[in-house]
């Protein structure tokens, strides 16, 4: 394991953020760009939204690359990796943020819906970690940060698929952290509570007000409050924190 004194400055590192075209992912990319880090913005289909995030990151002076890939497809992830190599932007930090949600009774869930959600939320995370952790291991330094959810810890009615996938993210995080710790690579999960993003668009009016009243701080989280925690976990001085699932949720779940 290299010493902290030997780690290159964080402003010279590269971070890959999956699902970075909006919401929490966009906030994470912009937070890292603020310190001049090289930013790789991954997106699936939202080309214009990803470009807008890229423009904001470049305005901070960051070197930025946008890449599109279906994270359910190993070949597309490997092509993405080749593109990053070609641009000299293989990541020192991987933020597995991409994910999809599902709301509804389990009795109504189709096998296709189950397969799609698990493929994006779990298989994609596995494939990305597998593709990019090798360089981190070889250089004896790296950070893998997985964006989970409070529902992966407590479960939620009518969100069984999503809760199950995020519980898998948490278990994956704890196990991989033990596997990579001797190589100087930390693996942690951030499990937000209710965040003011499009994932809560299905809640309006009284339903949204009731949710906010359940949260002790009395409001939803803002994406930049989540990105600040992700940034902290990526710092060299956070190297003794690994295998943790940290939930910024306003006191909602303890």
UniProtKB/TrEMBL annotation:
SUPFAM superfamilies per record: NAD(P)-binding Rossmann-fold domains
Annotated InterPro entries: NAD(P)-bd_dom_sf, Sc_DH/Rdtase_CS, SDR, SDR_fam
Tree of life domain: Bacteria
Xref: Pfam families: adh_short (PF00106)
GO terms classed as biological process: monocarboxylic acid metabolic process
Listed GO MF terms: oxidoreductase activity
Keyword vocabulary terms for this entry: Oxidoreductase
Family label: Belongs to the short-chain dehydrogenases/reductases (SDR) family.
Entry protein name: Short-chain dehydrogenase/reductase SDR
Phylogenetic placement of the source organism: Bacteria, Bacillati, Bacillota, Bacilli, Bacillales
